[in-house]
Amino acid sequence: MKRIFITGFTLLALFQSRAQNVPNDSTSYKSKKIKLEEINLVSSYYKQSGENSAVTGGIGSQRLTDIANTIDVKLVKYGETGIKHTFDIEAGIDHYTSASSDMIDLSANSSASSADNRFYPSITYLRENEATGSTIGIGVSSSTEFDYQSFGGNISLSQKTKDRNGEFTAKFQTFIDQLKLIEPIELRTAGEGYGSANRNTFAGTLSYSQIINQKLQIMIVGDVISQSGYLSLPFHRVYFNDNLVHQEKMPDNRLKIPLGIRASYFLGDNVIIRAYYRYYGDNWNLKAHTADLEIPVKLTQTFSLSPFYRYYSQTGTKYFKPYGQHTAADEYYTSNYDLSKFDSSFFGMGMKFTPLNGVFGLKHWNTLEIRYGHYTRTNNMTSDIISINIKYK
User: Fold this and answer.
1) CATH number (domain holding residue 341)
2) Ordered mean pLDDT values, 10 residues apiece, the chain (393 residues)
3) Structurally, how many domains does the chain consist of?
4) For 156, which of 78, 133, 137, 241 could close a Cys bridge (C-beta 3.0–4.6 Å)?
5) CA distances from residue 26 to 1, 35, 129, 391 in whole angstroms, order as listed
C-alpha cells in the first residue's frame, strides 16, 4: 500500500511549481498557445483470492495483487481559425504478483512468472470545430509485458446536433497483439525456446447522447468487436477425464456484440442518479447482462459521496468444463472460470474532495477522489480495489 501513496505524491511534487505559476484564464479568452488544461494522477491497489485457477486446470489458488499507477496530461491549443486542438497523453505502469501464474512451472514462489510489470502509454489527438459541433480524433497506444506486446490505433468522429443537445459518435479501434507461447512446463519440448502467435482485434462503436431536459440525459451505445488469431492462453492447463493434461484450445475467431444504455438524472442540486444497462452476446454462446447504479450525493460545497452497485450475470461459453470433465471428443476446451456461468456483485463507495484552497493548499490541484470497491462472484472468487485520483485543472 505504501507504494501507491509514495508514487502519487511524488508525481504531485513534480508538477507543484507548474501548478502554482499558471495564471487564471479569462472565460472569454482562448489562448492561441498550447496550454496545460488538466492532469490526473491515479494510483490503485487490487487484491483477489479464489480457488479456480485456469493455470492449474480450474483448481488452485487465484491469489493476485496489482499496483497500478497512471498519469494523464491534457494539453489544449486554439488555432487561428478558432479550431480547438486537444492532446491527451497518458502513461501507466502496473506491477502484479500472481500465485496462479507462478504455477506455470509447478514450483510456486520460484518461477519468473510469479510477478511481472506492464507498461502502457497512449496519445490521442482531437480536432474540434466548436462552430459546427464536429470533432475528429486519432490515437495510438501500446502495452508491453514479458509475454505480451500490443499496439493499438483508433479514429473517431463526433457531430453535435444543431441545438447542441445531442451528439452522435462513431469510433473504430484496432489492436495488433503478439503473444509469447509459454506452455505449462510438462508440455514443453526440452531445449526449445518460446514460440509466438498473433491476435488481432477490430472494434467499431456507435453512440448517441441526448439531453432530454434539464434533469435527464441519456446515451445509447453499441459495439461490434471481431477477434482473430490465437485466442487461447498458452499456459492454461485443461485436465481431461482420463487425467491427462492438455493445453487450452479455443476457436481462432470471436465476434462480440455489446449493447448498452446509460442515463443520468439530476435530483435537485445535490443528488445525481446514474444508471447503466448492457447486454452482451458472442459466437462462443456466452451471453451476459450488466446493471449498474451510482448515486453521487453532494453533502457540502467541498465534499460528496458516491455509493455504487453493479450486478453482472453470464451464461458461460459452450467450451467450458470444470477440472477433469473434458473428453477427447471435445474439439475446443477450457477450464477458465472467467468463461463459466456465474453471477457477480461489485459495490463500494467513492469520496470526492474539492477544497476551496486546493488539495494540500495547491490552488490548481482542485480535486482528490478516493474509491473503494468489493467484488464477489458465485464461484467463490472475491477481490478488493482502492484507488486515489488527484486532479489538476
Assistant:
1) 2.40.160
2) 40 43 47 88 97 94 96 94 95 90 64 77 97 97 95 98 96 97 87 89 98 97 98 95 96 98 96 98 98 97 96 97 97 97 98 89 89 97 97 92
3) 1
4) 137
5) 41, 14, 20, 21
